[in-house]
Amino acid sequence: MQYRLDPKSGNKLSILGFGCMRFPRNLSQIDLNKTEKLILKAIENGVNYFDTAYIYGGSEEAFGTILHKNNIRDKIFIATKLPYVKCQRYEDLDTLFHTQLERLHTDYIDYYLIHNLSDAKNWERLCEMGIKEWIAEKKDTGEIRQIGFSFHGTYDEFLSLLDAYDWDFCQIQYNYVNTHYQAGTAGLRKAAEKGIPVIIMEPLLGGKLANGLPQKAVSLFKNADVRLTPAAWAFRWLWNQKEVSVVLSGMNDDAQLNENLELADNSLPGMLTNDENKIYDAVTEAFRASYKIPCTGCNYCMPCPQNINIPACFSAYNMSYTVGFLSGIQQYITSTGSTNPNANHSPSNCIKCGKCEKHCPQHIQIRDSLNTVTKRMEPFWFKSALKLFVKLRG
Ligand code: SF4
Ligand code: SF4
């Protein structure tokens, strides 16, 4: 495992961080046995940074149970996040924080983030509530060691936030197709210039850079001299940059963990060749040409009051371009339950309430995009074809 120095704390952080949002599940429940095996193996192999959040349904509780059972709290750094949208009064800060400590079976958090703080206006609101005094108190008692924020806003807002407080670290969405999106490369470098370690989320853009690349991009990687999976290419691009501290990966099976561990053993800043950099440029071009809606499948927009499976509809729509129209239609029919007249959750049922859009970190105009999806995925023959299919099926 390679480590990079966090200049603010002196901690040596493993370049591979464990993202705890997508622990393996057994139906809707987190599979504790599988999760425990993965976590223990990651720690044995040098991973020391684990990232969870208050809102990652059951993640803090599961992770805390595993840490406690195996008595491994002190071997790792815990990063978790304050759901600041739930904070209306000063007292809420303490209530939420103590719930998190309890869930995680710990009395301190190494890296505490304000979750999805995407503009200076919200930071000002928190300051009026007294958050700076609260942070100072928690740092004095040692309950919070490092304070930071996770970010999905615009580049300008990122710069404003960097200057608004003496942050210990920050977390941004970053990968080789998002170089000019949100904080982007320029934001990463600005943070590093200020001596702020940067944690990277969405290195695979919700899995699209691993399993959702268009065929042309897959071939470009396949024909390269180095034989690596698309996911490995995405991680190497990040670790090639000295400004990157930790890359989070939501590893939920052994194969992913093994591949990432092997890569993290020997990935160093400046390792990429000119030829490899040209391949990333060509893959990015192919990706941008085929991906229409930049949904990462994070599910923050769910549930929808009309039971529309928003990320699945977007995924089917994108697939209809990257893989082929028929594959996209197949996924669309499954996601919308279109063959069942009693469970039809077509995007055409959207009542335009706008609830979903408030939560989308990718700032997708979900209502308009769902319109676009319906136009393509429900062509004039769609309903008659479905009726025929249901009739034939009996
Ligand atoms: S705007 Fe449409 S898709 Fe979004 S939450 Fe409301 S009904 Fe659901
Ligand atoms: S539409 Fe936005 S909030 Fe919903 S899953 Fe996609 S990226 Fe996440």
Key terms for this structure?
globular; metal ion binding; Aldo/keto reductase; iron-sulfur; NADP_OxRdtase_dom; iron; binds iron/sulfur cluster; 394 residues; two-stranded antiparallel ribbon; alpha/beta; 12 strands
Report on the structure:
The structure is a single chain. With 394 residues, the chain is an alpha/beta fold. Helices cover 46% and strands 13% of the residues. The chain contains 16 helices and twelve strands. It is globular and about 70 Å long. The mean pLDDT is 93. It binds iron/sulfur cluster (2 copies). One iron/sulfur cluster binds next to helix 13.
Q: TL;DR?
A:
Helix content is 46%, strand content 13%.
Present the secondary structure layout:
Layout: E1 3-5, E2 12-14, E3 16-19, E4 25-26, E5 29-30, H1 32-44, E6 49-51, H2 59-70, E7 77-82, H3 90-103, E8 109-114, H4 120-129, H5 131-141, E9 144-151, H6 155-164, E10 169-173, H7 184-193, E11 198-201, H8 208-211, H9 215-222, H10 230-239, E12 244-249, H11 254-265, H12 274-290, H13 310-322, H14 325-336, H15 366-377, H16 382-393
Parallel strand pairs: 3-6, 3-12, 6-7, 7-8, 8-9, 9-10, 10-11, 11-12
Antiparallel strand pairs: 1-2, 4-5
Helix pairs in contact: 6-7, 9-12, 10-11, 13-14, 13-15
Pfam family, one: Aldo_ket_red
Domain 4Fe-4S ferredoxin-type: 341-369
GO molecular function: iron-sulfur cluster binding; metal ion binding; oxidoreductase activity
